[in-house]
Amino acid sequence: MMANNNSDKSTWAIGGGTLLGVGVGLAVLKTSVLWFVGSIIGGIGLGLMVTAILASRKQ
Q1: Where in the sequence is the domain holding 26, given as residue range(s)?
Q2: Which keywords, in A-to-Z order, does the entry hold (predicted)?
């Protein structure tokens, strides 16, 4: 049972970006492991940027 029911979706944006990075990383995994890690980091960065945009629009 969740007592704190707020409408903050920032964790969804970060998690979605991370999953997107993993998906892209799996596509380039045969090329290089560093591209895999880079795509995960890029996905996290994309999620953080979406979170910042959503937070600025909320205020």
Answers
A1: 11-58
A2: Membrane, Transmembrane, Transmembrane helix
7's tokens: 């409408």
Q: What is the pLDDT of residues 2-51, one digit of tens each?
A: 555 556 777 888 899 999 999 999 999 999 999 999 999 999 999 999 99
For residue 34, give both structure tokens. 């560093």
Q: Letter for the amino acid at 37? A: V
Token duo for residue 18:
């991370």
Rounded distance, CA 35 to CA 53, Å?
A: 26
Are 35 and 25 contacting, i.e. CB atoms less than 8 angstroms apart? yes
- How many structural domains does the chain have? 1
Query: Can you tell me whether residue 30 is helix, strand or coil?
Result: coil
- State the residue for tokens 């990383």: 25
For the segment 48-58, what is each residue's pLDDT rounded down to a tens digit?
A: 999 998 888 87
